[in-house]
Amino acid sequence: MPKKIVAEAFGTMVLVLFGCGSAVLMGDHIGMMGIALAFGLSIVAAAYGIGAISGAHLNPAVSLGMVMAGRMQVGAFVGHVAAQILGAIIGAAILYIIASGRAEYSVAVDGLGQNGYGTGYLGEYSLGAALVFEFVMTFIFVTVILGVTGPGSVAGFAGLAIGLTLTGIHLVGINVTGVSVNPARSLAPALFVGGKALADLWVFIVAPLAGGALAGIVNALGFTRA
Fold it and tell me: For 106-149, how does the pLDDT look when each residue is reduced to its tens digit (9 = 90+)?
């Protein structure tokens, strides 16, 4: 268990540092396509780097999906989620330190890659749109993960499939919510930014967890497994 906790914390740190970092440090240069690739590639790196140790969930919604699918015990789930949150906060802290090295940077103005919706946030999509997007996309994401890591899957390709799926989700939805599908990824930047980011945070906890849980239930019923 200690090895799994360390691996989950490290992997989630990488996810936040690469994904949110691409938006904060390089967003003006690489655009939404580049940010989407950064999130996806971070998952690929983590999957092949630590997947054999912890499964590289890096996401409470994924871990919850595993529990609901009968592939993870509740005790292990609690340890994974604690590690994911810790790793995300460490990643956000590192990113904040780096971003603060630019003289004109302000976390209140430039943010830290936080998620959001409504007036003043990217495409200014409604609360309803944000909830539907996060729920549906997390359901799709966790369904893919359960499929490519389950019985009958092709060995060696899980990390690539998962990373490309996350890239695709970002290409569709960055302008909607900044894309969470991961409560830990949303929590960490919000803690540093505060204000609206914290006020909006519940959306990026409730919707992804609900989507991940449903994906696990559907898998357990046999509809999305071999």
Answer: 999 999 999 999 999 999 999 999 999 999 999 999 999 999 99
Residue 196, judged by CB atoms within 10 A of its CB (0-12, 13-18, 19+), counts as middle
Radius of gyration over alpha carbons of the chain, in Å?
A: 16
Q: Which tokens hold the place of 191? A: 């803690």
Q: Summarize pLDDT for 180-208 with one digit per residue, the tens.
A: 999 999 999 999 999 999 999 999 999 99
User: For residue 180, is it within any domain?
Assistant: yes
User: Residue 14 sits in which domain range?
Assistant: 2-220
Q: Among candidates 99, 206, 19, 207, which has minimal Cα distance to 11? A: 19
- Residue 178 maps to a domain: yes
Number of domains in the chain: 1
